[in-house]
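Posting for a labmate who doesn't have an account.
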Amino acid sequence: MAKEKPHLNVIFVGHVDHGKSTTVGRLMYDSGNVDEQAMRKLKEKAKELGKAGFEFAFVMDNLKEEQERGVTIDLSYKRYMGQKYEATIIDAPGHKDFVKNMITGSSQADVAFLVVAATDGVQPQTREHLWLLKTLGVTQLCILVNKMDAVKYNEAKFKEVKEGVTKLIQTAGYKPEKVPFIPASAFEGDNVFKKSENMPWYTGPTVNEQIDLFDEPEKPVDLPLRLPIQDVYNISGIGLVPVGRVETGKMKVGQKIVFVPGREGKGVPGEVKSIEMHHEQIQEAIPGDNVGFNVRGVGKKDIARGDVLGDAANPPVVATEFTARIMILNHPTVLTQGYTPVFHIHTSQVACQFSELKQQLDPATGAVIKEKPDTLKTGDAAVVQIKPTKPVVIEKFSEIPQMSKFAIRDAGATVAAGMCIELVKKA
């Protein structure tokens, strides 16, 4: 079996219409990850809808409504094979940007491309996205200065935008010397997959090359074992087979483990009999591994999706309430105390109540603007007290960041994203 390439989750964010989807579409197409025929169909479709030139964006925006409106509505995922990494590319909608799709638990962005149009420079949303990337713990960043064709590939214009963005990334806590800037035209294909002929003054990497230049994400093997359950299968002749992805720590054959909260909320103990990945038996699973495993001593009715497996000696934390730092991405009106939407925390979905709005924060810096605000609206950042309707497994960002993040959904849309900073353990 060939050694698998390390995996990297890459997110593209940026102000609406700055060219995120077009960049990703161009990358997929020029690299041969989308074929000629599919592209031709999208071209025809774009013409038909009076959106000629949107065909690259259509690679990502494959929902009919999105194509007609020319905007990205929800997240889409694409596999991208680089030289070094097998990447999952996440194209985030600009107008209600949601930077880590923690909803399915399948993706945690490791690195981000922030797309800024050379024509507009820094926009209000550019600031928000940076703060959100920071809030959600994305440590590696690259700035893509797009639409260079619209400024006639002018180096001075690129430098001006770079200067503006550099100030911004400093306030967000990124080190400018660690953040590369790439001048590009996604529409014309400059510096996305192919090196540009139009900007001889730029000698750095293309987007494609930059993906391989990011540092490999560290695997948090030294943290306690946490494996959120995605599904539980009952396979005849084998028995109970839970399936999920190891977030932190290691799981070994023979290990004594516990599932929490479990059916009665008391935790369900067991022992790992065997572990399987890609239809092969393995002796231990590490972070990032999607595995199925067989457990001794656990019944079908004992565990379900949303439970979290941990080592019996260091079980996952069950909280009855928690304090969170959140960013409101898309709420139709205002959010007040008592609001009870659905929280998606790793693989669990639990209705949780906003029991107290503690502080409103400046979305650009994280500084406290107001104590105990009455309401919060789209674009606001805040610290809030949350009371789940039933105990939930969540960890503090300072202890196990991978298990601290959540998304808030209401009426089919993502309202907010955040992380747990303090919690009250279930007695």
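Reply:
Got it, the structure tokens are right above this. The chain is about 15% helix and 35% strand.
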